[in-house]
Design goal:
The chain is of the alpha/beta class and 384 residues long. The chain folds into three domains: 174 residues, Sandwich (Immunoglobulin-like), CATH 2.60.40; 34 residues, no CATH class; 129 residues. Helices cover 32% and strands 29% of the residues. The strands form four sheets. Strands 1, 3, 5, 6, 8 and 9 form a six-stranded mixed beta sheet that branches. Strands 14-13-12-15-16-17 form a six-stranded mixed beta sheet. Helix 7 packs antiparallel against helix 8. It is elongated and about 115 Å long.
Amino acid sequence: MNMIRRIGYWLESRFCAPAYGGLVLAGISICFFGAAMNTMAGWLYVISGLSFALLGYTAFLSPKTLKGLQLQRKMIHPVTAGDDLTVELEILNPTKKPVSLLQIEDKLPFILDKPQLHPIETISAQTSYSWVYYQPTERRGIYRWQNVELATAAPLGLFWSRRQRQLNAIAIVYPKVLPLKSCPLVDDMGREDSSKGQPRGNPLQTASEGLTRSLRPYRIGDPLRLIHWRSSARYGDLRVRELEMLTSGQEIIIAIDNGEWEENNFEAAVIAAASMYFYAQKQQMQVQLWTASTGVISRKRDVLEALAAINPQDEVIKPQPTDKPLIWLTQNPATFSSLPYSSRWMLWQNISSSRPQAVINRDTPGIVIDSEQPLQSLLQQPLN
């Protein structure tokens, strides 16, 4: 059966292959021709001749129908894991005749889903048909595919013909970002680093509570907590404090170990990195991401794409920073010895390993991740 299907597919892809109705008509035509030879009845020759002519005509038209059609693929916008990709294909019929009995198949990568099939009844002359479908996503990644197949049984459904087109597609699925109300791992590092560059205290605190640089008139959108009520009463209009924003030393680098990982642990580490990055940005910290393939990056789009593409044991193109403290995400506690001073860590337990876990250096604060507990709550728990 598989051999017959492969032969049929080969015929459809290069010329055409008979459908079930075509096989039935061919069988009837042969029977009429055999009967005509036995009886020498002219009307049987006529019927068999017309049947064979009809088969030849439809076999010729079926592949010709696909030649004039044009395909275009619209850009696929990135989504977060769990959301649906919006995939849009447009089929243009520039000819002066309508095209019917079409079938389009978008051959998705197997890791994403099985190929998507869509029937099209008719495309009118010199018009286009837009096919939009929504592809669910379960995990992050950068997915690439290019093959799209057009098939038709026009005009009478007796023969199938299909042709493959190359339409490159790139779908980027970002990792999930957990909404964090707090993250002691990031907060503690920001306080420690900022106090080194600011002898008067934590600039994150002074940014909202003190070190007034000047007063200015209130503008729509200014936080009410920044209004200086005493000065506002004196001048007769609202006055807002301009605070001294000292950001020296607030640089945070989140780094993911490029060693061996269990698959589930690595996916959790990527989600944790994305969540901490956005939390630090929300707190107006200077946050960056390091991966073995990209090095240190800070732009939001670059970070999301790097986290979508990252894999365990990627080739080290940009070496790990050694002169700045890191938030180190790893499954191997032996890597702690090479961390820069004042670094923090998140350690995933390697359940599949028969070797005992190495002793954790308690002088460097961090979090041990238990895969049985929700990652969001672990990211918000106090440091060890």
